[in-house]
């Protein structure tokens, strides 16, 4: 069994549509649903945080509107704030095994 490593990833979530409707979004890592949030308001952004405990490898973070939402969302400014990993600007997290 491959050893798992804990990584904390933070990124910004912004509304990209000018409509003043409320909405909801989901955050996935690969195909696994990590969270669903309700967005109320406009004109600002939220900071989202994921805690991933997984074997070394690449994991894609995706954000999408829920089926019942008219709002549109975008994730940006990805950063690893804890753990042995890095993330690129498209949301691909690379968990690496720490060197001894």
Plain-language structure description:
The protein is an all-beta fold and 100 residues long. It has a single domain, classed as Immunoglobulin-like (Sandwich), CATH 2.60.40. The chain has no helices and 8 strands. The strands form 2 sheets. Strands 3-2-5-8-7 form a 5-stranded antiparallel β-sheet, with no helix packed on it. It has a 3-stranded antiparallel β-sheet with strand order 4-1-6, with no helix packed on it. A hairpin with a 2-residue loop joins strand 2 and strand 3. The protein is elongated, with a radius of gyration of 15 Å.
List the helices and strands and how they pair.
Blueprint lengths: L4 E11 L7 E7 L2 E8 L5 E10 L2 E9 L7 E10 L2 E3 L4 E4 L5
Antiparallel strand pairs: 1-4, 1-6, 2-3, 2-5, 5-8, 7-8
Q: Averaged pLDDT, please?
A: 90
Given helix and strand content, the structural type is mainly beta
What order do the helices and strands follow? EEEEEEEE
Radius of gyration: 15 Å
CATH class, please?
Mainly Beta
Considering DSSP H and I runs of 4 or more, what fraction of the residues is helical?
under 10%
When the domains are counted, the total is: 1
Q: Report strand %.
A: over 45%
CATH topology: Immunoglobulin-like
Question: What would you call the shape?
Answer: elongated
Residue runs with pLDDT of under 50 for 5 or more positions? none
Termini distance? 19 Å
CATH architecture label: Sandwich
- Number of beta-strand segments: 8
Largest sheet: 5 strands, antiparallel
Number of helices: 0
Looking across the biggest beta sheet, what order are the strands in? 3-2-5-8-7
């Amino acid at each position: 069994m491959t050893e798992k490593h804990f990584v904390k990833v933070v990124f910004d979530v912004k509304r990209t549509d000018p409509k003043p409707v409320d909405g909801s979004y989901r955050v996935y890592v690969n195909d696994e649903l990590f969270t669903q949030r309700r967005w109320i308001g406009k004109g600002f952004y939220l900071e989202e945080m994921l805690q991933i405990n997984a074997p070394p490898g690449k994991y894609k973070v995706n954000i999408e509107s829920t089926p019942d939402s008219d709002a549109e969302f975008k994730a940006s400014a990805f950063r690893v704030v804890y753990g042995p990993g890095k993330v690129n600007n498209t949301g691909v997290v690379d968990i690496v095994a720490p060197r001894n």
